[in-house]
Task: inverse folding
DNA sequence: AATAAGTTGCGTGCTACAACCAAACGGCGA
DNA sequence: TCGCCGTTTGGTTGTAGCACGCAACTTATT
């Protein structure tokens, strides 16, 4: 038997606060140079994921393929990623971060880690580690539970309002 | 003296995944009836916060006052919140969720908790509780460190913990 | 044929910034 | 003390830009 509904409800408030972090990140200019915020996120994803196709990124970020297509265009114009035709399928291009792109992501993550480190300077290292472990685990479970049976549900997607 | 940079970096990936939850929430229609997603978040904030002014909400959500103004308009049109002139200052109107608004938030949070509960059905209740505790604590510290938070809650009802 | 990857046109939602109004505040001089 | 005027603050509206979804299309795969 899983956790009680009350315990799950305890998660809601910090989760809500967490989603609000996007605003803080925007305010702190936590994005790569020359590319908008969303594209920076895509670039980070690509660096951690390694060479892959655009549709993989779209699926993973739960956005439409057109969104990824445009952001890929921005990143390519900025010289942060490169495309390579897939030898096995001429429709797809394989995306990979350039050296500049990897450098930008490293710098960005360093700034983020520093920011968090300052905010949590009173924490025990083991506690932060434990939080990271639990959070990572929870996100994997939530993603797995949500993406698979929520994804093939075309009735569900009538415009974003 | 605080967590190491490496440990903080461990947080980055789950945090990134967490921000992506917004997309999942949009697809699952995790919003109140008749109001867009962002306004639903504002309504939830208002319910937990109790009666307050628009500028308080703007500050805590780290958005411009104009954004709150428009979302308040949406929520008022939907009958989910009500305004009351502040007797002490004729410029401000005090905002409060209506009974309908509170009902909508309750229903929304129940759906969210159910969703999370299903995703974490293999978890131990104590572990979820521990995650909630750590996450809540971390968010408070990050917020406090990032925003100068003169957290003056004049009418703090309902200690959401 | 039917399906899939990617692109482009178009409409909408969310947001910030600037300009604006009205109320409140703060002297400062008579 | 009173009254006036400049400044500050809460809130609204206009404008612009980014992010996103959907539809339609092209090209390649099956």
Result:
């Amino acid at each position: 038997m899983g956790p009680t509904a009350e315990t799950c409800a305890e998660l809601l408030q910090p989760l809500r606060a967490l989603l609000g972090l996007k605003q803080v990140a925007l305010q702190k200019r936590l994005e790569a140079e020359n590319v908008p915020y969303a594209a920076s996120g895509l670039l980070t994803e690509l660096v951690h994921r390694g060479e892959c196709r655009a549709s993989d990124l779209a699926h993973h970020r739960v956005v439409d393929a057109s969104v990824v297509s445009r952001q890929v265009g921005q990143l390519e114009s900025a010289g942060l990623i490169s495309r390579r035709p897939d030898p096995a399928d001429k429709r797809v291009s394989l995306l990979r971060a350039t050296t500049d792109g990897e450098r930008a992501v490293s710098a960005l993550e360093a700034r983020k880690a520093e920011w968090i480190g300052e905010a949590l300077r009173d924490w025990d290292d083991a506690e932060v580690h434990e939080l990271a472990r639990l959070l990572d685990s929870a996100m994997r479970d939530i993603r797995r539970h949500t993406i698979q049976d929520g994804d093939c549900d075309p009735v569900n997607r009538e415009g974003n309002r």
Notes: The radius of gyration of chain B is 18 Å.
